[in-house]
Amino acid sequence: MIYDCAIIGGGPAGLNAALVLGRARRSVALIDNNQPRNAVTHASHGFITRDGMAPAEFRRIAYEEVLRYPSVNQWRTEVTSVNKTEYGFEMFTLSGFSVQSRKLILATGVKEIFPEIEGFYPLYGKSLFNCPYCDGWELRDQPLVVVSEFPTAFHTAKLLLNWSKDVVLCTNGHASLSDQQKEWLESKGIKVMEQPITAFIGQNGLLEQVRFTDGTHILRAGGFVTPKFVPKATFGESLGCEMTELGGIKTDEFGRSSVTGLFAAGDASYFMPSQLIYAAADGSKSAVGVNMDLMEEFIS
């Protein structure tokens, strides 16, 4: 069987794309390895009617809704490679079978690479996070730390003043701030510490202090660590897609890539802002793009 569209990735982008295509009576192969990036998070925020919902519950409800449509089929496996064919695309999987489709939506997302700091992972998703819009409310009015090795450190530290007036910015040994930026931050009460970090110290998932290589430490109750985002899969690049400066797949307003028939949605395309509601909306737009192209091919 050749599906109208295959979707690689079962996050909010891929699931919403499958929902829209299912309602358009398109045959869909939804392929997902069940390894969501937000699995460590206790609750997701910023999505109206879903604020505070556990990611696992979000996925459970989403799959329940999507699979009500008989033309949508789910494959729980990992795609290992994708080939362009005369009819569209062929996906090869870790389970040993292949899936063929006329169109393809890559909704594979990104993965985070965090600084190698001792004690980070036991605290991640509990008192250390990466998105202030997602988790800033839960840390409001507490003494917070921002750890960022990138030029965006200045913006993130400024942003956190919305949630707390007690903020320390740590660059972990990287010279990512100008003198003018440091002066501005300190004028707003944001202390800047540029020495490398030795460890995060805390218990039961709750941050207590940040220790530095020079022997100093600061007491903090939570904070935000900026990761480097990289594509979770490189199918788009290997198929010849034009890429953005950040490493995402460059698309038009309906998710079309530079490769005919290949679409990208969610973090696979734009990387930031990395929020559920953005990804779901992007999946919907890509599905509309797929359906429009299939329709035009049918009537031409």
Compact overview of the structure:
This protein has 300 residues and is α/β, with parallel strands linked by helices. Helices cover 26% and strands 27% of the residues. It is elongated and about 65 Å long.
3D structure, described in words:
It is a single chain. By secondary structure, the chain is an alpha/beta fold. Helix content is 26%, strand content 27%. The chain has eight helices and 17 strands. The chain has helices at 12-23, 55-66, 132-135, 153-160, 179-187, 235-238, 267-270, 276-299; strands spanning 2-8, 28-32, 72-76, 79-84, 89-93, 98-106, 110-113, 128-129, 144-147, 167-170, 191-193, 197-203, 206-212, 217-219, 222-225, 228-231, 262-264. Strands 1, 2, 3, 4, 5, 6 and 17 form a seven-stranded mixed sheet that branches. A five-stranded parallel sheet has the order 8-15-9-10-11, covered by helices on one side. Helix 2 links the parallel strand 2 and strand 3. The model has no long low-confidence stretch (mean pLDDT 94).
Tell me the distance between the termini. 23 Å
Count of DSSP H/I helices: 8
Q: What best-fitting shape do the alpha-carbon axes yield?
A: elongated
Overall residue-averaged pLDDT value: 94
**Uncertain residue segments:** none
Oligomeric state of the chains in view: single chain
Total DSSP E strands: 17
Please state the CA-atom Rg, rounded to the nearest Å: 21 Å
Query: What is the helix fraction of residues, given as a range?
Result: 25-40%
Order of helices and strands: EHEHEEEEEEHEHEHEEEEEEHEHH
Tell me the structural class.
alpha/beta
Sheet with most strands: 7 strands, mixed
Bin the strand percentage: 25-35%
